[in-house]
Amino acid sequence: MKYALVTAAGFAAAFMMTGNAAQAQQSPNCTSDAESVWDMSADEVKSFYACMEEWMQQCYAQNGHDVGSVYREWTVSSTRPAVAGAHSNRLLQTFANDIAAGQYLKFETEGVEMPAGSVLAKESFALKNGKGVIGPLFIMTKLEEGASPETNDWHYSGLTNTGDEMRVSQSFCHDCHVSWEAQDGMAYPLEEVRVSN
Ligand code: HEC
């Protein structure tokens, strides 16, 4: 664990010192012939992701953020990324930390209450002019009971593709996530890609 963190920080330092030119070189130039992410077959999504995933992980980790640099060690909740429509029609894939995983991966629809300390991190990426672009890493963190009654104790946050914290409006995120109130505000991946427990 400690080793992984040190490695991520070391990578971040190297990445930042060499600046934008190095960042461009780091881009693996992932391409697809599909018109849009909606037209991609499951296999096309998988090979597109295979090209994107390491690059995404490095980009989110480059500032040593406490979620951005570790989320890939968590439990993945889907068999591949998928487009749900929400989150700007991007391909999405969610990871759950150890506190969250047991409950999240049941994908229950009634009476769900996530334990405090649960963190869900969702990668997002898109296809623009035939090339892969990295969107934000969307994060939901369950706070102690009573810490934020207006968001049902969730804290919403996000990282840019340069590993920087985004300014996030709690009400913007929650106003949509509250639609899944019986699932403690969680929308879950599309059914066809859910990892079965
Ligand atoms: C218009 C509705 C909408 C808005 C606004 C929205 N989300 Fe989501 N969110 C969804 C849907 C739908 C999913 C499940 C889709 C998927 O992951 O395939 C989801 C999934 C997530 C997940 C994975 C956990 C889960 O619910 O299963 C995280 C983390 C997340 N969103 C964070 C955020 C953050 C942070 C914001 C604000 C910046 C935000 N969301 C705004 C609809 C929304």
Care to describe what's here?
The chain has one domain. 30% of the residues lie in helices and 18% in strands. The radius of gyration is 17 Å and the shape is globular. With 197 residues, it is α+β, with helices and mostly antiparallel strands. Bound molecules: heme C (HEC). The site of heme C (HEC) has 23 residues, from strand 3, strand 4, strand 6, strand 7 and helix 4.
What is the fold's blueprint, element by element?
Blueprint: H1 2-26, H2 42-61, E1 75-76, E2 82-83, E3 91-96, H3 98-104, E4 119-128, E5 131-134, E6 137-142, E7 154-159, H4 170-177
Heme C binds next to strand 3, strand 4, strand 6, strand 7 and helix 4.
Short description:
The protein is α+β, with helices and mostly antiparallel strands and 197 residues long.
- Bound small-molecule species: heme C
What is the average of the pLDDT values?
89
CA-based shape: globular
Radius of gyration: 17 Å
Biggest sheet character: 7 strands, antiparallel
Strand content: 15-25%
Number of folding domains? 1
Structural class: alpha+beta
Distance between the termini: 25 Å
Low-confidence stretches: 1-25
Give the % helix.
25-40%
Number of helices in the DSSP assignment: 4
Q: What's the total number of strands?
A: 7
**SSE run:** HHEEEHEEEEH
